[in-house]
Every structure is written in C-alpha cells, then in structure tokens.
Amino acid sequence: MNLLALCRNNNGIEIKRVPITNPLQTELGNVFAQQEDAFREGRPNEVAFNGDWKPDDDELLVLDATPDANTMLHAAQGNALAVPVIDIANFDNENIRALFIGVGNNGAMRLLVQKFTAQQRLNRRLAVFLQQNNFQRLTEPAFTIGASLTCIIENNQIKFNSYSNLRMILDLAEFYQEATDEDIDNFVGHASLNIDDLDAFKARANQTVRKLIHKVSSDGTLDNYAVADIQAKAQEMELDLDVQNGQIQVPQNQALAKRFLRFLDDSLYEAPLSGQRYVTNSKMAI
What we know:
By secondary structure, the chain is α+β, with helices and mostly antiparallel strands. The chain contains 9 helices and 15 strands. 30% of the residues lie in helices and 23% in strands. The strands form 4 sheets. An 8-stranded mixed beta sheet has the order 2-1-5-6-9-10-4-3, with helices on both faces. Strands 11-13-12 form a 3-stranded mixed beta sheet, with no helix packed on it. Strand 1 (3-9) and strand 2 (12-18) form a beta hairpin. Helix 6 (207-219) runs parallel beside helix 9 (254-264).
C-alpha cells in the first residue's frame, strides 16, 4: 500500500508519495478500509450529479472521472518508485489537497480519498508528544490522518456526498462556472430577450446571477421554448414578464432578474398542497 498526496500548484496538480514504514502501511490500510465501510454504509443509491442538488441520507452522488481524478488513478496504478516523494523539508509549502490510497489491482483499482486541510499539519501548532515519561514539543513535520473519506474513485466515476468538500480537492469548474461579461452579452443578445441598460446590468450582476446565466445558456433554455410559452408558464408562477415586440424585457432590478433567471433554470418550485413557492436546492428527476 502506498500513501499518495495530491498537491496543487500554479501549474495544476502533482501526485507525490508520502514515505511510510511497513507497520504504518498496514495500519493505514485498515483505517482507510474502515472509512470506506462508513462512507458506503446506508447509501445504496447512486445518483448522477448535475451540480444542482444535495443527496439524501441514502444516496451517493456520482459524476464521470475528471482529468484530476484520472491523474490520481494513473499514479496509483503505476510504479510507486517513479512517483516523486513529498518534500519533507518543504512540507508546509507542498500545498497538499488530498491523501489517498489505491485498493485492488490495476484492472479494478479504486481510490479512497481524504481531503487534507491546513489544520492537519501539526508542526504549525504547539504540538507535544510523550517521550521517556516527558512531553516534548514536536519540531519535525507531522500531520494527522483525516477522520473520513471525501470520495471514492472507481469504474471511471467519482462517488461523493458533499460537493463543497469535493471541490476542495478536484477542479470542478465545469459545475460552477460564472458567466463572463462576454457571456452576458451573448445571453442578452438572444432573439427572445432585451435589456435597456446592459452595462448597468453587468455592473450589478453578482455571482449568483452570473452562475444562473451560464447555466441557462448552457442548457439552451431560450432555444427550446418560445417566448409565449415562457410567459404563460411564468404567469402560472405569478411571475409577470414584460414582453414587448416578442421579446422578454430582462428586469434591471437584481432581485427580479434573479427570480426570472431561476424560473428559466427550473429552480422555482410550487408545493402542490400549500401552494407555497420555494427556491429549490434539489432538481433530482423522479
């Protein structure tokens, strides 16, 4: 068993090997195995992740392996001696984002992955250890092993239960992209839309608005539905759209613009019994 570290720098990621003794290899193998059991326990259902919702207690989210994940798998499957060793003397600056091990043979290997945080680096604190009945200050680089897995990579898939934790390790920009000013120009330039003051709209567009614009544009919503259909469905949600000359006037007010964009993104929900309307965190198809 080899303990590997995913390190991130300005050029991307690099996989390095953490040298450990044989007894510690066995012990760590047992720890990761127990964490895998806990990770999978009570979560028999695997659901494809689309960036829009959180899993229930009995679910694991699944997405196709990203380039980062494939790099990790390639390193675990290859010759361990060819993997560069972590720079112990420069441990604090290695920028470790994850610790992981490979389990199984190359044909069916899976990776058990823990996120790694600055709080795990003990040498940054006043850490002490017992030696010959006296506590002494820890002066050499040291770290703690995480208490749980963040994800499992297997069968060309990443399985996880927390998007926020996973994005601390892997590059998931494709699931959290924001529209640039140019993207907003293209969005508002659609034949179905008009906006009176584009520059002012872009200046006020916050992260949420830009993310929604990117999502709606990527989904092709305005290409898939006619203006009349959008207006009719919006009225059912008591969302009054100003339509002039066959174009929807995008609200300049940020709150109204956000509500309009959430409507286009299918993120507004009306409870069938109470009629109460919500912004939904889950868009799981049933």
